[in-house]
Each structure stands twice: as structure tokens, then as C-alpha cells.
Amino acid sequence: AAKMVHDRGAGAVVTGNVGPNASTTLEALKIRVYVGASGTVKQAVEDFKAGRLKEAKGPTTDSHSGM
Which residues make Cβ contacts (< 8 Å) with residue 33, sequence separation at least 6? Predict the structure, then answer.
């Protein structure tokens, strides 16, 4: 998924949390990760644009915590 994001030219990912594998991969690809998103995609984008999301500087959750 991170390669697809990179190949499409994205400079950032907006998500609720980011695990260690995704964090490492996205960091290597120079893609910023913003966490704390919830609700609809529209709300997440609005929160991102308004600066309400926090840039992750590493994983925010354990591996496989969403499973």
C-alpha cells in the first residue's frame, strides 16, 4: 500500500494510527504521516487542512493491533 501511495505522488497519509511496519516504510519513502483522523474522509481531510492532526514521528500503535 505504501508503494502505491508513493507511486501516485502523495506526500502525506492521513490515518487514525500507524503501525511499525507502515511507519518505517512510509518514512523511507519520505511520506509524512498524520494521525488522529476519525469519522468520514471529508472530516479527516478538513481536520488535516485545519492543522488538527498530529504528524507521527514513528509508530502510534503496536504491530497488528487493528486485526
Answer: 12, 13, 15, 18, 22, 23, 26, 27, 55, 56
Are 17 and 63 in contact, with CB atoms under 8 Å apart? no
For residue 49, what are the β-bridge partners?
A: none
Cα angle, residue 20 at apex, residues 23 and 15 outer, rounded to 5°: 55
Rounded to an integer, what distance in angstroms lies between the CA atom of residue 27 and that of residue 49? 21
DSSP 8-state symbol, 56: P
CA distance 9 to 34: 16
pTM over 0.85: yes
Tens digits of per-residue pLDDT, 30-60?
Answer: 999 999 999 999 999 999 999 999 999 999 9
